[in-house]
Specification:
Length: 490
């Protein structure tokens, strides 16, 4: 699981503590500021995305070009949004993303129906006629068709929002019809003070329509958007077109190819603001639509490598680094990772020549250094020279609470979460700060086979970018999920 659900729970605990600390600090005995002298200190932006604690800030100031340039980091997580703030370019002008991969398969579309167009149109699998773009190059003239339900792919919080918004539209339409029918019924009653049995059938018809509307209002069942997908080979590469606005017109859509070739992405539309890219596998028989399954991966990637030239305090620890996003959080099983997704992720690490992996994911484990996946992780580290950084877990403060794989695998660097005075003020609203310390909830070693468990501590809270679909630019979150990318960036 992403160490995000945990961190939210822990955030609540931490935020619950903050007012207690604040009230202690601002008690009447505190004479640091008098009532008629307001405290006007500037907002301490240095702690928004912490870099001072590890020496990274000073290092970047003294060596601005030693900022991760030439380094590629794989982010094993919920996927990273290529449209998020600060994640479009590196500090030396290269694309921020080398590749975006869905290793889970939840975005897969089977493309097994071949059709030839008639008068520039195809019969889509949704039943809509699809208008092609006359400018596309398709030497074979053949098109492959598929269909994808948006809700199979969208993050749960987006499904919830869209469902609510679509319900509002549905309710408004039905309530308008309902009001109209009620008026018709009143008018009918006024016009038929002594209706015959035959005339009453008209009234029964109106009443039956009203009842049916009432049922439809009570039993709202939203299947969500359903997208026609079309694939064709332009002579060089496969190109995928998704009818993101469900209007049957494909000429208003972008013809995308594998992300690593052209670094293109598009969006499912203004309402969802969910960005997507594609990869095509199995000789055009499988289209992989790559979208995030949550906000976690984008937040993590921002801590490693966001680049904000106008607001360096918002930049990540290594703004020059490039990213390979590997989605391991599968929407179909509540965002859990699978062994298959992790193996595909390791393949991508080797194919794209990644230098580091960050994995802010994991579960509790009673045994250390065991299992086929741990063997594969160790091979990538020891034989490919990849540095593998992972969160230790948020199950502290008791001893031997480190989780797998970060805390329990000796080939990986397991990262604990630390909170510094510089972080306390901007992130938790403390006017006077305490000494730096590990967060209470950060998992502790030793492992059951006697290793330390937590190899390093790093700042475990940050304001960092989140995906566009969340309708926010950035958010604060804490957890070893945030400590691991901070260490990875360093
Ligand atoms: Ca369209």
């Amino acid at each position: 699981m992403p160490r995000f659900s945990w961190l939210i729970r822990r955030s609540v605990v931490l935020f619950t503590l903050c007012p207690v600390l604040w009230s202690a600090i601002a008690s009447p005995e505190d004479d640091s500021a008098s009532a008629d002298e307001p405290d006007v200190r500037p907002f301490p932006t240095v702690g928004l995305l912490p870099k001072q604690e590890t020496g990274a800030l000073r290092f970047l100031q003294e060596h601005p070009e030693f900022d991760g340039r030439g380094v590629v980091v794989a982010i094993f997580d919920t996927g990273v949004d290529p449209g998020a703030a600060g994640l479009s370019q590196t500090s030396d002008g290269r694309p921020k993303f080398v590749d975006l991969i869905d290793a889970t398969g939840d975005g897969d579309v089977r493309m097994t129906t071949d059709r030839q167009p008639v008068d520039g149109k195809l019969d889509g699998l949704s039943g809509r006629p699809l208008t092609l773009d006359a400018d596309w190059t398709n030497p074979s003239g053949n098109y492959r068709l598929g269909l994808k339900r948006g809700y199979e792919l969208f993050p749960p919080d987006l499904v919830k929002r869209l469902n609510r918004e679509r319900r509002e539209v549905w309710d408004l339409r039905l309530h308008t019809l309902e009001a109209d029918l009620r008026q018709q019924l009143i008018a009918w009653d006024q016009g038929h003070p002594q209706a015959s049995a035959g005339q009453l059938k008209e009234r029964e018809e109106l009443q039956a329509r009203l009842d049916a509307l009432g049922d439809a209002l009570k039993n709202f069942d939203d299947p969500g958007p359903v997208y026609d997908c079309v694939l064709f080979h332009d002579g060089d590469v496969w190109r995928a077109v998704i009818d993101t606005d469900e209007d049957g017109d494909l000429s208003d859509e972008t013809a995308l190819t594998d992300y690593h070739r052209e670094q293109q992405y598009t969006s499912f539309g203004e309402r969802s603001q969910l960005n997507l890219s594609v990869n095509v596998y199995d000789e055009g028989r499988r289209l992989s639509i790559v979208a995030v399954s949550g906000a976690h991966g984008t937040h993590v990637a921002g801590i490693v490598a966001a680049y904000e030239p106008d607001h360096p305090e918002r930049s990540g620890v290594a703004p020059g680094a490039q990213i390979v996003s590997v989605k391991i959080g599968d929407n179909r099983i509540g965002g859990m990772e699978t062994g298959r997704a992790l193996v595909r992720g390791l393949r991508a690490v080797i194919d794209r020549d990644c230098d580091l992996i960050n994995m802010s994911y994991g579960e509790p484990a009673s045994t250390a250094n065991r299992g086929r996946l741990i063997e594969l992780f160790s091979e990538v580290v020891r034989e490919q020279g990849v540095i593998f950084v992972a969160s230790a877990g948020n199950a502290g403060p008791a001893l031997s609470t480190v989780g797998a794989p970060g805390g329990t695998s000796d080939a990986l660097l397991g990262i604990g979460a630390y909170v510094s005075p510089q972080m306390m003020s901007p992130q938790y609203g403390l006017r006077e700060t305490l000494d730096g310390m590990p967060y209470t909830w950060t998992s502790r070693g030793p492992t059951t086979d006697g290793a330390a468990g937590t190899d390093l501590f790093a700042p475990g809270g940050a304001f960092s970018p989140v995906p566009n679909y969340g309708l926010s630019r950035s958010m604060q979150a804490n957890g070893t999920s945030m400590a691991s990318p901070n260490a990875c960036g360093n």
